[in-house]
Amino acid sequence: MKKIFLLLITGISFSCVAQQRNPANKAIYLEDISWTEAQKILNSETVVVIPLGAAAKEHGPHLPLATDFLQAEGLAKRVALEKKVVITPVVSYGFYPAFLKYSGSTSTTFATATNMVVEIVRSLAGYGPRRFYIINVGVSTTPTLETAAKTLAEEGILLYYSQYSRPAFDKAEARFRTKTYSGHADEIETSNVLSIRPDLVNMSKAVNDSSMKGKSGNMTPVMIETGNLNTSGINGYAALGTKEKGHKNMASFASELMKEIDSVSTCALPTMKDRSAEYAAYEGIYEDATGKKLEISQKDNILYFIWNGRDTRNFFHLYKDAPDYFSSMNMNILFVKNESGAVNKAWCQFRGERFWVTKVQN
After folding, report:
1. What is the CATH number of domain 276-361?
2. pTM to 2 decimals?
3. Which of 126, 219, 238, 261 has its CA 20 to 30 A from that of 351?
4. Which superfamily does 2-266 belong to?
């Protein structure tokens, strides 16, 4: 009965709020609502959709740097018309190292891109949601999402994401490609942006460039050692792009997205890993060189800290990001073990301050 009541209230909330941006929308855009409205909508039954697309990454001389952003945003709009989900703002930065030789392109490190997704999801999961889906329009982003999904699964959170290499998505695009060879800023991406923001496309500069065919590694607009010369930044047949193909491809791709979102909404959640025995090794009191104390404790499979007498356990706790390495909103801790395998000290970063602490009491 409690679950039925929750679903009823959630349904009413969605119907009241979802139409603020577009009267036809079934989804709610998180950025459009207040925290009190979010409080009513974010719960264990909510599916959260996160669009991910670079807002500053080269896509040839004819497309804007925001090409990925526009595609992710455009796909999210199509999802919004069909699904009762919560859609977050577009995550516009990520792991795109292959394009850094082209002016204006930006990339985070692999670790930063992974952690950014993990931390966004963790923040929202704190309000109840356990099911997340990422509209991923990148290729190099996929390994970061795979890593993030594994980390979150151990916390009982489901994260899934679109991936070009999956047969369903590849087949969806193949129907609209004139040429079988494609890769980047090509026929399909050009068509997609023509269907979304034709005012940002300069087809007079769109060229067909297959110089990367059969090659792997980073492209570069000027010849450098170990790089692949590609003066256009295009990998494929951009000149073949049309608005009509873009409309059809975006609809086809969105259809596959929604099938996966449906699966995310119904499949079993991962089981939270019991780490109580593991966390026991870290518990205790540590001191830095000035006598300030770091207290580490655990409760209900969660690791907590108190630094210098300031108790923030009700606000921030420690997440395991790697073996012996934990992070929270304002504290990062790397625990160090001695030769016998016992934790005896730790390296810490509290906001901008970095220091060592030594374990003085178990």
Report:
1. 2.40.128
2. 0.91
3. 126
4. Creatininase (3.40.50.10310)
